[in-house]
Amino acid sequence: MIVHSDTANKLLHSTIISSPNNLYSSLCSSDNNCGIGLCCSMCKWLDTIISYLYGNYLYTPVLQFGFKLGHSINLCTAVFIKTVHYYVRTGGNVYSCLLDISKALDKVYYGKLFNLLVDLIITLFLDSYTRQ
């Protein structure tokens, strides 16, 4: 798979489940639901092997919270709340700008994103994700 940058069709099948963004809003609204793809265990196994072999080369900035081992949105929220509490407690003003990018992943052009990455393993991911 890595040498030829090709993924077997059976590995590309996934199950999409619906996950509500807000339990207090209408669960029937499409704006309140996000589709999550569950891939096969072979793909997870391949991801684990690649992470083990090339994890040192695949790094993200320290301030990135999402898609990072041991990090979650809870950590990001905690940092934001502590920062706001600090400025309120010291009598300062707090200004914040929040960006809702909940539908952003639906608009990503994966072809261009992966063309920027030239490693053979990344080419394998391109094949997997574009045919899925």
How would you summarize this macromolecular structure in one to three sentences?
37% of the residues lie in helices and 11% in strands. By secondary structure, the chain is an alpha+beta fold. The chain has one domain.
Q: What percent of the residues sit in helical stretches (DSSP H or I)?
A: 25-40%
Largest sheet: 2 strands, antiparallel
The radius of gyration over CA amounts to 19 Å
* Head-to-tail CA distance between termini: 15 Å
Characterize the structure shown:
This protein has one domain (9-131). It has a two-stranded antiparallel ribbon. The protein is an alpha+beta fold and 132 residues long. The protein starts with 13 loop residues before the first strand and ends with a helix. The mean pLDDT is 75. The protein has helices at residues 41-54, 73-89, 110-115, 120-131, and strands at 14-20, 33-39. Helix content is 37%, strand content 11%. The relative contact order is 0.15. It is built from four helices and two strands.
